[in-house]
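User: Can you recover a sequence for this backbone? Please restate the input before giving your answer.

Assistant: Of course. Working from this structure:
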């Protein structure tokens, strides 16, 4: 009897404490992969992963140089007759130049031995940059402008997915950086500037769009610690890396970067019966109910509303919305199910909105970027689902509308189905009259049942973690993130590039803060 075996490669973030501190010039390259077995128990899944691990070890050992390689089993679980096992490999390269050789290990096909004399399959091992510490030689690149005395190097790896005008985020602590440089002063709040350079340190762009969201969120304090968001302009190919510096100072007058904001500013208005934030971006316009803590409308560039919430009308209006978590976050909700919503941060690349109920047992955060929006459930009182109840292209048409899963399976919107979307967990919806599509991503790649049906000819009913009416809501993780957005091409190859390029992890390395050499010139 042949067992069914599916290999799912999954890149996960791992804390620096687990990976350990790299020595100067070292690069840590991290591989995390999940093996999913249908109709097998956890012990068999564990056995299969051990075989996979031995194969991986042999393959990697043929690469040179590899002074350090460890592989460890992280977990093994079973749910809904699907056994799953996850392992992580950590590779340490002792020279920065060897890093590029690690890229060749991505997407390496490995044979897996027969499992109980029943199965053979190919595994795709995927990796990501985990950490890197530059040597002094690599840090001594040309100084961009002598008026700025300090900088932090940043490296970004596409990590095997093509990226297009992708925002990048990294946590930075400028107070700590200044202290490490021996500067007992606060960051000058007008001094930040991001530039891009080549691998050889030549200036490529001295005006990279960015924003810095201070963690203290207080106008009375100088910015010190928070999230830097900057833009990977243009197309970044799937195997390439890019180099940046964030320049900063504690004193002086500096001109800010120039550029057109790609998000906002936010407007507040009365919309479909509730006070609403209207967030305009270059790809979509969102209408977010402040009390309901959900999206009532999501308009594409041509003004088509892919949600179309209205008070009353059941499936013709009031049932619609995103994310419609169940007990919280549904447009139109108020009172006991209502929320307190505020704008946490607003800038040219991102707007952040938080919503919580009066008891603070539900808390969500929305981040609106130029081409997509991301919601994170930060706290939940009960299990939930994440729903898209709306109108593809402006109106549900069961004959011409469709949806496509991450494995390429395309279905008409008149079909009913339920079952776990095998990772990666994403889906997109299309209108036969349009080339555009709307996608939804569950970052968690869980084992929960997902479900779709058209309701009364009026709207889609799709849910991550849903099985209705029999069993209710299946999602419970917090924090848990979900991404939505429009793509301008609904053909599977183009759509999958768009979706993966938006939500798959980038490889991001933050280097040590550097002080301007005493004698230096300005880069040309």
């Amino acid at each position: 009897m042949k067992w069914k075996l599916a290999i799912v490669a999954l890149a996960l973030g791992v804390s620096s404490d687990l990976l350990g501190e790299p020595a100067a010039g070292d690069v840590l390259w991290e591989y995390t992969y999940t093996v999913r077995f249908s109709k097998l128990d956890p012990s068999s899944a564990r056995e299969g992963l051990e075989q996979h691990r031995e194969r991986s070890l042999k393959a990697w050992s043929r690469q040179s140089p590899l002074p350090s390689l460890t592989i460890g089993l992280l977990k093994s679980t079973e749910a809904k007759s699907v056994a799953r096992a996850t392992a992580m490999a950590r590779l340490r390269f002792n020279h920065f130049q060897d890093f590029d050789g690690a890229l060749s290990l991505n997407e390496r096909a490995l044979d897996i031995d027969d499992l109980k004399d029943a199965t053979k399959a190919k595994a795709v091992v995927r990796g990501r940059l985990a950490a890197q510490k530059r040597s002094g030689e690599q840090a001594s690149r040309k100084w961009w402008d002598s008026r700025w005395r300090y900088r932090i190097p940043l490296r970004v790896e596409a990590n095997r997915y093509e990226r297009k005008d992708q925002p990048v985020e990294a946590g930075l602590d400028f107070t700590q950086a200044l202290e490490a440089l021996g500067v007992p002063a606060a960051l000058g709040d007008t001094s930040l500037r991001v530039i891009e350079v080549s691998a050889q340190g030549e200036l490529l762009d001295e005006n990279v769009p960015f924003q810095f969201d201070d963690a203290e969120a207080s106008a009375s304090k100088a910015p010190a610690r928070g999230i830097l968001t900057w833009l990977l302009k243009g197309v970044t190919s799937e195997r390439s890396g890019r180099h940046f510096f964030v320049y900063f100072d504690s004193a002086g007058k500096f001109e800010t970067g120039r550029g057109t904001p790609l998000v906002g500013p936010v407007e507040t208005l009365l919309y479909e019966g509730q006070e609403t934030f209207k967030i305009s971006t270059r790809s979509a316009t969102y209408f977010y109910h402040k009390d309901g803590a959900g999206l009532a409308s999501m308009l594409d560039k041509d003004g088509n509303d892919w949600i179309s919430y209205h008070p009353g009308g059941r499936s013709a209006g009031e049932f619609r919305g995103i994310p419609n978590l169940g007990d919280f976050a549904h447009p139109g909700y108020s009172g006991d199910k209502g929320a307190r919503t505020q704008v946490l941060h607003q800038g040219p690349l991102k707007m952040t909105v938080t919503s919580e109920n009066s008891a603070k047992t539900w808390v969500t955060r929305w981040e609106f970027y130029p081409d997509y929006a991301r919601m994170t459930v930060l706290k939940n009182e009960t299990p939930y689902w994440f729903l898209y109840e709306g109108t593809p292209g402006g109106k549900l048409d069961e004959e011409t509308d469709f949806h496509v899963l991450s494995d390429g399976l395309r279905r008409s919107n008149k079909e009913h189905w339920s079952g776990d979307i095998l990772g990666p967990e994403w889906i997109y919806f299309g209108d036969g009259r349009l080339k555009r599509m709307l996608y939804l991503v569950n970052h968690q790649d869980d084992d929960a049942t997902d479900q779709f049906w058209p309701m009364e000819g009026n709207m889609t009913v799709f849910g991550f973690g849903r099985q209705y009416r029999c069993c209710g809501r299946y999602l419970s993780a917090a924090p848990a993130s979900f991404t939505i957005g429009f793509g301008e091409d609904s053909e599977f190859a183009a759509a999958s590039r768009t979706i993966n390029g938006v939500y798959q992890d980038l490889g991001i390395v933050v280097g040590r803060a550097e002080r301007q050499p005493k004698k230096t010139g300005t880069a040309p």
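That completes the design. The radius of gyration is 24 Å.
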